[in-house]
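User: Can you help me understand a structure? I only have the sequence.
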Amino acid sequence: MTNLLLNFVRGLIVLLALTGVAQAHPHVWITFKSELLYAPDGTLTGIRHAWSFDDMFSAFALQGIQSKEKGKFTREELAALAEVNVSSLKEFGYFTFVTADGKKIELTDPAKNEYWLDFSNSVLTLNFTLPLKEPVKAKELAIEVYDPSIFIDFAFAKTDAVKFVNKPEGCGGTFELPRELTFQEQKALAQIPADQQNTTMAWGAQFANKIKVTCK
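Assistant: Let's start by predicting it. Here is the structure, written out as tokens:
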């Protein structure tokens, strides 16, 4: 992790430990929605995410941030925090992995005007768009969202989890929820100290949230 994010998460873990929550991985929970962005020629050009953090993480993240109206934050007031989030996520590939016809597809960083934070109902939501390095047209497209270390738990939103913007004719999509952790896997994760990441058990991909698109 970058130093900013590492210190940020360490502080959160201390808070969780004091409240008796930090028992095992994961430590941060994100509910998300994704939009697949298509150009008029039918190529996929980018992925727009909306990640809603759990209320504990949201409350901790907002500490020290001043707002004009108590309990409310504007996008401008949250701009610096959004910058920290996006800059830190770069190191991890934004936890977003794309393949087209079995080939790995590279993503690029969000443009400055393509990310921001919203605050509503005590929850922070990070909105950002990941452009593809090169637009792609494929018969089989797969997008996976997960943390390889399972430090962060990702889950599709219960409604409107996946949308298509300008979806080409002849293309259809589905999404798959990750499987549940077994008892033995939960036990192994519980043995990892709360202030350490899971770097030895490469399980994350087994618990990926998957979007699959097939085109004729």
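Now, to help you interpret it: Residues 1-7, 10-24 have pLDDT under 50 and may be disordered. The longest strand covers residues 123-136. Let me know which part you'd like to focus on.
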